[in-house]
Amino acid sequence: MATVKGAKKRAVSTLKPYERNARVHSDEQIEQIARSIKEFGFINPVLIDEDGTIIAGHGRVMAAGRLGMTEVPVLYVEDLTDEQKKAYVLVDNKLAELAGWDFELLDSELVDLGEVIDMSAFGFDEIEDTPVDIDGLFADAPAKEPKPHLVTCPHCGETFEV
Prior knowledge:
Strand order of the largest sheet: 1-4-2-3
Largest sheet: 4 strands, mixed
CATH topology of the largest domain: Conserved hypothetical protein from pyrococcus furiosus pfu- 392566-001, ParB domain
CATH superfamily of the largest domain: Conserved hypothetical protein from pyrococcus furiosus pfu- 392566-001, ParB domain
Helix content: 25-40%
CATH class of the largest domain: Alpha Beta
Radius of gyration: 19 Å
Distance between the termini: 38 Å
Number of strands: 6
CATH architecture of the largest domain: Alpha-Beta Complex
Structural class: alpha+beta
């Protein structure tokens, strides 16, 4: 199982959720996070302030609790104002939400991993096909021809173009 260097271990019981955390986690997502921790280790430490309040990692802490873990790796965030902490709790979640997928590469990676790791256990059987307009993000970027999106049926294995 992988470990993260530089993170400190801290008792889950001493961590305090940010009481105004606007991000919610479904039971299914907590289970997926727990599966990820079991498969890969607790690779992404929880970010906390000097008082033990969680700035990022609420879902990971909930998953750790589900797994019966008593300690989790943490990184201490220092020198942020209270307003910056509040903002980062929101920003950290929003930036991850705004990312998109290169569906051609994703499909290729999932096919490669399909024999080794069941990626559906982490929600990859339910990805919404919502590509991001990458060309629109960079005004100077030349326009690209849209690539066909290949989808492989998880039941029959047939690949077709969308």
